[in-house]
Each structure stands twice: as structure tokens, then as C-alpha cells.
Amino acid sequence: MSEYPPNASFHRICLTGVISCGDRITSRIKQGMTSVLRRQSSTSNENDVRMRNNRSSGHGAVNDSPPSSPAQPGDRGTRACCFCCLAVKSGNGTQGGPNSRIPLPERDDPPTHEEIESWGESFDKLMQSKGGRRTFREFLKSEYSEENILFWLACEDLKKEENPEIVEEKARLIYEDYISILSPKEVSLDSRVREVINRNMVDPTPHTFDEAQLQIYTLMHRDSYPRFLNSQMYKKLLEESQLS
């Protein structure tokens, strides 16, 4: 006798079919959820990549007001890069205007043959000539004694000054450059003249260095001037001026 009631086999088959169907439904549901999760994960990854790219390219923000905008065609001339540019752009605000060019210093005319010839007549004529002083300075530079004429010229400039404050400042600079024993451009002066200068520096005047200037002038006259007249520099200059 069977342990199952009538029709038990039929019920068992039905139950088995239901269970199998339920398993298939559950499996499909799981597959669908897995697919959804994968799509969400892919979308999230794509968003992350976009955000990283935005951060690397533009730091994730839009700059509405850049720190510096490119110059517009009509903005030229509003800012000069240096003083020279500013000077060139002056004159009705346009380049090429009547006042736009920076005036260049006028070049001195070359000395005439007669003037160069007069330099050999006396040291005074040489030093009174602008071209003569310039040529003699080049000669002294070749002898490493340029400081002598530079000191003399500085004293001449001091004599023209009237403002007490400027006189004091220029006198101090002359002392530091040519009188101080620490200066590489110290001129050769005797002790008596140095004492006079030290007293005068208590209250400087345009004539503080008069004695020192005379001593250096005499030194150049007696020592350097004869060598200058016998130098190839002067002889060549004299010959070239005669041919021109």
C-alpha cells in the first residue's frame, strides 16, 4: 500500500514545478539587480573620471573674472614697460608724432687740426679744450692714472655749485673717491694739503679742494703732459687731422 494519498504524485510534480519556477524567477531577479548595479557602478565611475578631468583642467570652477585679460586693440599705449617706452608714446598719445622721439645728445664736433696743434703749445690750452681733455683722459687711462683728471674735473664742477647742501654732498663724494686712503682712486697729495682738506671738510665750500686741485694739475703738467705729446696717440691724431 502506498504511503501517499491518491493523486499524491500529481501534487508532488506540481510542487516541484512551482519550486523550479520560483528558482528561475529568483535567479532572473538576481541577474537583473546585478545588471542594474553594474550600470550604476559604470555611471559612477564615468562621473568620477569627468570630475577628475574637470579638477585637473579647470580646478572644477569657472573663473568669471580672470586676473588679467588680453590687451584689446584699442588699449595699446595705456601701460608702458619702461621709461623709454613712456617717452616714445608721449606726444598726442601716438607713435611717430612730432614729439614722440627721444632727443639724442648732440655729438661734439671733432677737433680741428689747428685746435689739436694748439694742444702741443701749452698744457693750459689742452685743458681748456673739451676735445683736449677727452683725449688727454684717454691717454691717462692707458697709463692707469685717470683718477688725476677725474679729480680735477670734479673740483671744477664743485666750484660751479651754490647750494650749500649740494656743495656738502659733492665735497663728501670727492673726499671719499679721491682723498680717502681707502679709495682705489686715491690721488697723490702731500700731508700738508691733506691737513688743509681735513680742516675744510668741517664746513665744506666750493673751494674746499682748491690747493689739492692745483697740486694735481701741476703733477699732470710736469709728469703726464710731456709723455702725452710724445705718444703715438697724439702724433697719429695730429697726422689724421692734417689729412682731413
UniProtKB/TrEMBL annotation:
Domain RGS, first and last residues per copy: 122-238
Biased composition (Polar residues): 32-46
CDD domains reported in the protein's UniProt record: RGS_RZ-like
Location(s), subcellular: Cytoplasm; Membrane; Nucleus
Protein's name in the database: Regulator of G-protein signaling 20
UniProt entry keywords in alphabetical sequence: Cytoplasm, Glycoprotein, Lipoprotein, Membrane, Nucleus, Palmitate, Signal transduction inhibitor, Ubl conjugation
Segments forming a coiled coil: none
Biological processes, Gene Ontology terms: G protein-coupled receptor signaling pathway; negative regulation of signal transduction
Annotated spans, Disordered: 32-74, 92-113
Membrane topology of this protein: Lipid-anchor
Top-rank taxon: Eukaryota
